[in-house]
Amino acid sequence: MIESILPFIKLSPTVKNALHHKLPVVALESTVISHGLPYPDNRDVTLHMMNAITESGAVPAVIALIDGCIHIGLTDDELEMFAIRSDVLKISRPDIAYCLATKQLGATTVSATMICAAYAGIRVFSTGGLGGVHRGAETTFDISADLTEFSKTPILVVCSGVKSILDVPKTLEYLETQGVPIIGYQTDRFPLFFTHSSNHGLTQSLNNSYDIARTAEIHWELGLSGMVVANPVPEYASIQDDIVERWVNEAVDQLNENNIRGKAVTPFILSKVSALSEGKTLHANKALLISNARLAGQISASLSALSLSDTSSVSEFNAKEFSRERRKG
Ligand code: PSU
Ligand code: MN
């Protein structure tokens, strides 16, 4: 880890031990806990995600900002605090230093979680959906910092695509411009979060965690940056696109009526859609979060098996030394 960063990083004992022994670790974001889901589902689904990661042979690490430090791995009490409190800041790339300096509680979005995971040497991160290009972005310029992060930070993010609260074709175009690979897991269609499939085709599709890990390893060996693995919501929990679309349109109308802007846009639409669906979207949301965590755990374990996962820098990493250490251990 770069020396100047050390004072700002607090690893939990479990995560510290895992990183020290080069075991597979999967990062989890905290914005989905503090701003994405209601209590107590936010806490419970996080515990289920952590279990799924453990069952896949990896160590989970929820990332959040507390009292001037980037915490990698939370205690149960800390998780409860992020699940309950309403004064938690939503932290993207521009907000990290401000939150640390003012010692406020910060929940990390996809962009901030990628940055913090990379500091710790974690390569795989699991979440629900990415931020993207908002509908009407041609006038509001509202494009999530998540999308530019992928061109900067070499992390693999497992997600279920993006919600159709966004402009999906523009989001895909933007990711392509940023040079971000999107690998469909057992699909050649871009998943729409609540909906298993879509008419947006993908050019990259792989069927198992080993092939994904191998691709990631090459991507990083070549010095390329972040990547997306799109894992569709499990079919049993998938909701038909035209039904979701009705709720989304209504939520977007309310957004304009209430003059909601900036950081508040995504949480506002998420909670409106959830209310309009009378909880149906919550069921899908939980199912996909757990399924993504499981896949991320498998990919992370495969990367470790390839001797390249979870190192502070792939280019610095001495694969031979690692295999020697593994044989010894
Ligand atoms: N999309 C979801 N659920 C979420 C988010 C996005 O379906 O919880 C969160 C993620 O943390 C993502 C952030 O990084 O919202 C994007 O916020 P914004 O659109 O303000 O950049
Ligand atoms: Mn925005």
Walkthrough of the structure:
- With 329 residues, the chain is α/β, with parallel strands linked by helices.
- It has one domain (8-311): Indigoidine synthase domain (Indigoidine synthase fold, 3-Layer(aba) Sandwich), CATH 3.40.1790.10.
- 47% of the residues lie in helices and 13% in strands.
- It is built from 14 helices and eleven strands.
- Strands 1, 2, 3, 4, 5, 6, 7, 8, 9, 10 and 11 form an eleven-stranded mixed β-sheet that branches.
- The protein starts with 8 loop residues before the first strand and ends with a helix.
- Residues 309-329 have low confidence and may be disordered.
- Manganese (II) ion binds next to loops.
List keywords for this structure.
11 strands, single chain, eleven-stranded mixed β-sheet, alpha/beta, binds manganese (II) ion, binds pseudouridine-5'-monophosphate, 329 residues, disordered C terminus, Indigoidine synthase fold
